[in-house]
Design brief:
Elements (H helix, E strand, L loop, with lengths): L2 H11 L7 E3 L6 H6 L3 E3 L2 E3 L3 E9 L2 E11 H9 L3 E2 L2 E3 L17 H4 L3 E2 L1 E6 L4 H17 L2 E8 L3 E7 L3 H7 L6
InterPro entries: FkbM_mtfrase
Pfam families: Methyltransf_21
Protein name: Methyltransferase FkbM domain-containing protein
Length: 180
């Protein structure tokens, strides 16, 4: 993935008053890259906090190494301290499965009054158990009619883009103008 291009493109598409926050356990290069746009945090973000295994890209290959992880809702509510996010780019290198239910109605984001207007997520090659989690994620989002998947591409993994069509703020900001 060309992170610089992805981040630059996403930043250019967001409203000018948007802020950028990037979290990655690999400090080398990422701190310099993310700091050009906003604030960098030198840890992984996922569904639990602790010193956990992380799949990291080092010397042109992925390796497993211990890294500090911060639970996603804690990161958003206690560190970033915002409730509404214009856009999230989620690339958790295989640990994304644990946060998929956060997006469901009544999930962790709803329980903490967190709104995403749009998000990109990478789904890394799953085993049979993770394939079922992914299937459940897609069908749950379809049933709940909050997010619509507008794009899905497959490279070495799946990259998907979702837009929140249920939140009036998100719709007026990114889809069409709504009179209050």
């Amino acid at each position: 993935m060309n992170t610089l291009v992805d981040v630059s493109l996403c930043i250019s598409l967001l409203p000018s008053e948007s802020s950028f926050y990037g979290a990655d356990p690999i400090v080398e290069n990422n701190e310099r890259l993310y700091s050009k746009f906003g604030t960098f945090f030198p840890f992984a973000v996922g569904n639990k906090s602790g010193i956990l295994d992380a799949s990291v890209y080092v010397n042109r290959k992925y390796i497993s190494q211990k890294a500090i992880h911060v639970e996603l809702v804690y990161f958003l509510t206690e560190i970033i301290r915002q409730k509404v996010y214009d856009h999230a780019i989620i690339d958790a290198e295989g640990t994304e499965y644990g946060i998929l239910p956060y997006f469901y109605r009544g999930g962790q984001f709803d329980q903490n009054d967190i709104t995403f207007c749009q998000f990109n997520i990478e789904i890394h090659m799953p085993d049979d158990r993770k394939k079922e989690m992914f299937r459940e994620f897609i069908f749950t989002l379809l049933r709940e009619s909050r997010y619509v998947m507008l794009r899905a591409i497959r490279v070495d993994h799946y990259r998907m883009y979702f837009l929140n069509f249920a939140n009036p703020y998100c719709v007026s900001r990114y889809v069409l103008e709504i009179d209050d």
